[in-house]
Every structure is written in C-alpha cells, then in structure tokens.
Design a protein that fits this description.
By secondary structure, the protein is an alpha+beta fold. It has two domains: about 70 residues, Arc Repressor Mutant, subunit A; about 55 residues, Ferric-uptake regulator, C-terminal dimerisarion domain (Dna Ligase, domain 1, 2-Layer Sandwich), CATH 3.30.1490.190. Strand 3 and strand 4 form a beta hairpin. Helix 1 crosses helix 3. The longest helix has 13 residues. The N and C termini lie far apart (about 50 Å). It binds zinc ion and manganese (II) ion. The site of zinc ion has 7 residues, from helix 5.
Length: about 130
C-alpha cells in the first residue's frame, strides 16, 4: 500500500464522515470544511477521499447515480435508497453470510462479498402529502 503524509484536512474529512450517517457527496464535505480550511478545493476533497478509500478507512457507494457518495462505516452493511428524495440509509439487518456459502458450494468457487440494496420510499417522504 502506498504511504501518504498525514494531513490535517484528511483527518477532518474522515472525522466528518464518521460523524454522519447521511452518506454525503464530496461537495457536501467541501461545503462543511471550506470555512475551516480556506485553501481547500473540491479537487483536494476528492483526492483525500480517494486516499482514504485506498487506506480502507472509508467506502464509496456506487449506485450509478450522478454523485458519488461516501460512507465512514466500513464494516459490511446494506443500504436503502429512497426513490423520492435520494436519501441513502443504513439497513440494520445482519449480512447474509449463508447465501455466500450456498452459492460458493453451488458454483464450486468462493464468494468473497455481495451487495444488496433496498429501494423504496423513506419514512419522511411517506409522511408527506401531495
Ligand atoms: Zn425520502
Ligand atoms: Mn452506510
């Protein structure tokens, strides 16, 4: 693994990601931190996010959406995506290891991980009328 000089900005980005469960975009992170680091640019935020990913500190959510979203929770978990507001929520269900074993047996190979995503309408959106 490549080594990087530690950076104050990167530490703050990591702390920010760990403090939220909203799976923010790079531009949200940039907006939160630009007051604190006047020299910060969106490009720097992206670069630091890429380094944090390489270091295994964060994960990147790829839903094929326009904006990349980032997650400070690195242990395997599922996500729910609201099709009305676009919110991404953590799903508090156990990860289904047994389906990995079943399919590994079936194909004679080894499943290392799987993804499962839930889509629907979040509680907040469901409560809104009209
Ligand atoms: Zn919603
Ligand atoms: Mn998550």
């Amino acid at each position: 693994m490549k080594r990087y000089r530690s950076s104050k900005q990167r530490k703050r980005i990591l702390a920010l990601l760990r403090s939220t469960n909203t799976h923010p975009t790079a531009s949200w992170i940039y907006d939160q931190l630009k007051g604190e680091f006047p020299a910060l640019s969106l490009g720097t935020v992206y670069r630091n996010l890429r380094i944090l990913q390489e270091q295994g500190e964060i994960t990147h959510l790829d839903f094929g959406s326009t904006f990349d979203r980032f997650d400070g929770r690195i242990e395997p978990h599922y996500h729910f995506i609201c099709e009305r507001c676009g919110n991404v929520l953590d799903v508090m269900l156990p990860v289904l290891r047994e389906i990995e074993r079943s399919f590994s047996d079936q194909m004679g190979g080894k499943v290392l991980r799987h993804r499962l995503e839930f889509f629907g309408i979040c509680q907040e959106c469901l409560g809104q009328k009209g």
